[in-house]
# Entry
Amino acid sequence: MRHARLPRLLVVLSSICALAVPVEVQVLDAAGKPLDEVVVYAEPLSAKAPKGKLSHIIDQVDKEFVPLVNVVQVGTAISFPNKDNIRHNIYSFSAPKPFDLKLYSGTPSSPVVFDKPGQVVLGCNIHDWMVSYLLIVDTPWFDKTDARGMARLGELPAGEYELKVWHPYQASAAPAQKIKLGSGAASAFAFRLKLTPPPASGNHNY
# Structure
């Protein structure tokens, strides 16, 4: 009796897997050239987003934050390892998560938990040119574009989503795209985004 149910169970599981859609997004500038380091994310419109990976690392290397642009889901704990041979004082005044890690070497014992959505700018009180940008989103389906301007959001369940892009240097926000994923629907999308020049990096001699 149990064996007789097995084929039916496999059919059900196959149907569920078939509903997952791999989503790719390309982001280009106004001239049609690919943009890297652009955050791309999909927010479900008809269901609550599940929790994904809730840990992340932002390094300090050669008096710079690595990476420059970051994206995490709400509730993510971020570690800030200092890999330089000098101390740093990491902080943010941004509304979603103000914090201050006093002068330290190595890795702080406790990560910082980012529990609200929004944009966060990170800095160092000692080295004023050091900056990193963080977008906190309420979805596990996100990625950053590579050198070809491509982002891959993984396999999303069938349904309706709002697809968005973000970069800290964007001249203005690109309009979100409402998409519907499912059998026969498109799963490759594109955006155009205009960026402004990055700020000057400053003096690295201290």
The first strand starts at residue 21 and ends at 28. Confidence is low (pLDDT under 50) at residues 6-18. Residues 2-18 form the longest helix (17 residues).
